[in-house]
Amino acid sequence: MAKLFKAIIDFFKKIFGTQDTVEPTVNSGDTTTSAITTTVPEPQNDGNEPQIDGNEPISTEDNGDEQNTEPEFVSDFKILIDNGHGVNTAGKRSPYSANGVKPMIEFYEYKWNREIAAEIVKRLKELKYDAELIVTESNDVSLSERAKRVNKVCGEIGTDKVIFLSIHANAAGNGTKWMDAQGWCAYTTVGTTKSDKLADFLYDEAEKNFKNRKIRKDTSDGDRDWEANFTVIYKTVCPAVLTENFFYDNADDVKYILSKEGREAVIKTHVDGIINYVKYAEEKEHKLGYYKA
Q1: Does an H or E element contain 261, and which?
Q2: Collapsing DSSP states into helix, strand and coil, what is residue 269?
Q3: Sign of the C-alpha dihedral, residues 278, 280, 285, 290?
Q4: Residues 64-115: pLDDT tens digits?
Q5: Which among 4, 18, 170, 225 is most buried, taking Cβ atoms within 10 Å?
Q6: Distance CA 169, CA 255 (A)
Q7: For residue 118, how far is the Cα from the chain centroid?
């Protein structure tokens, strides 16, 4: 019997190795019992998964308890930007050269307006302001339709939370020759309204950004903006300003607004002026109506 047990032990040693076996216990006499035990190594953490008490890996999945509470926008205001004129608008480009074939400086207002307006909206969005173009088409959407789109937004969220700006470049002639008129200006409708305050903030930024450039002002009514009942700002029910960003039929002006420096100054003037107005209006909790001194 002893030989039999030894053979069994040798067999298990060969399979499990000597460190994993326990020698059998043999009772005296012919009756014997044996207790052969084996130990299997526990799985080891390879360092890739964190464990609790060395047993189960920690779950790294997001349980959804934490929510992103950061607001989408920093203001309740809706800022609507208009890129005046369309590709099919007659004229609205720099004067032709002497042979009447090609402009000396190629400037097309519809194209420039759209580029500037789109960049203003882009930067406002990057700063988390709710800004939007009201004209995405390339054709010339009518002035009444533009105003209608603005007023639709006003009806949805309230006129006291909407502002509107229409971006243009100016001209003094009929497109056949270069003119002497120069400068930047902004228009509001006739009378004293909230639009005048928005224009004030734009003029403040224009003074900072358009160094050594002419800024056109009409101070006859106590402020700097010009007044005219242009349809696109006259028919809108929220604060509305139309800016004329230098003259594209003045050679010096048009070179400036086509330059990197000039474009940046125009964009910055609008973005900063808009933000300053919005902060002012929110602080004062202004409502639609007329300003009182």
Answers
A1: helix 260-284
A2: helix
A3: negative
A4: 555 666 779 999 999 999 998 888 777 788 887 656 666 678 899 999 999 9
A5: 225
A6: 13
A7: 11
